[in-house]
Amino acid sequence: MRTITVINPKGGCGKTTIATCLASHLSWDGYKVALADLDPQQSTTDWGALRSEEYPEIELINHGSGQVRASRGTDILVLDSPAGVHGKELGQLVRRSQTLLVPILPSPIDMRASWRFLEQLFSLAPVQKGKVKVGLIANRVKENTLIYRELTGFLGKYRAPYVAHLRASMNYVRAAEKGLGVADLPRYLAERDWQQWKPLMRWVESKRSQPKN
Ligand SMILES: Nc1ncnc2c1ncn2[C@@H]1O[C@H](COP(=O)(O)OP(=O)(O)OP(=O)(O)O)[C@@H](O)[C@H]1O
Ligand SMILES: [Mg+2]
Predict the structure, then answer these.
(1) 48 has a pLDDT exceeding 80
(2) 13 alpha carbon to ligand 1 midpoint, in Å?
(3) How far, in Å, from the CA of 72 to the mean position of ligand 1?
């Protein structure tokens, strides 16, 4: 089983949104997916409770129930991490993952906080040795804004790939309130978002996002 963790200690940058949407995309792509909520705020658990059986199944694991253990046969475990992860907890999360996705918002406060986090992350041995692969995501962007260009420049400086930019869209908000991701929305509503998820899914489903052995 492979573990993909969505992580950035900065609150509100889109970890839960991206973890839930990623789980939904992967389940549409035919993987057996589990999604674990590591956050005491329980937003992912709430999301899972709203999801109807009409949509591809995602096994929800609530951290409150003890250890995170996905059912047998699970292909991919997605972890939604809480805000404020640091120190020992960060090290543990990094060690148990093969892939990390780091969402960052186009805002000076978020970019500064994320810079500090990325400095810390890239100094960890598993990241330096390529035992875990990191992908950066610009989230909630408004194209044609200066701050989005600044964020693109900021993300381009890292050796970790800048795997996607996701626009600010009410689709994310509306989907979340029904236990859905943008992949579950109809084409006429979400075509633009699907296009933006394509490079992200290509990276996630390729060897580039997985350690060599
Ligand atoms: N691309 C987007 N477009 C529009 N709204 C978004 C987008 N991404 C996230 N949001 C909204 O931003 C808010 C914060 O997102 P989310 O809860 O996913 O962040 P988080 O990193 O999980 O927060 P926390 O650190 O509190 O766990 C939510 O209201 C969510 O619906
Ligand atoms: Mg969250």
Answers:
(1) yes
(2) 6
(3) 31
Name the least confident of 60-64, 104-108, 175-179.
60-64
Tell me the C-alpha distance between 9 and 119, whole Å. Answer: 13
CA distance 98 to 87: 19
Amino acid at 45: T
For a mutational test of ligand 1's pocket, the pick from 10, 16, 114, 177, i.e. the residue with the most ligand atoms closer than 8 A to its C-beta, is 16
Q: Is 166 in the pocket of ligand 1 (CB under 6 A)?
A: yes
Claim: this prediction has a pTM higher than 0.85: yes
Both structure tokens of 187: 């084409």
The residues spanned by each domain of the chain are 2-202
Residue that wins the pLDDT comparison between 213 and 184? 184
- The 10s digit of each residue's pLDDT in 198-211 is 999 999 999 999 99
Q: What's the CA gap between 164 and 179, in Å, rounded?
A: 23
Ligand 1 atom nearest to 170, measured from its CA: 4
pLDDT band at 66 (very low <50, low <70, confident <90, very high): low
**Whose C-alpha lies nearest to ligand 1, atom 14?**
12
CATH architecture assignment, domain 2-202: 3-Layer(aba) Sandwich (3.40)
Dihedral angle over CA of 194, 195, 196, 201, nearest 10: 70
Length of the chain as a residue count: 213
- Please indicate whether residue 176, judged by its CB atom, sits closer than 6 Å to ligand 1: yes
Grade residue 96 by pLDDT with cuts at 50, 70 and 90.
very high
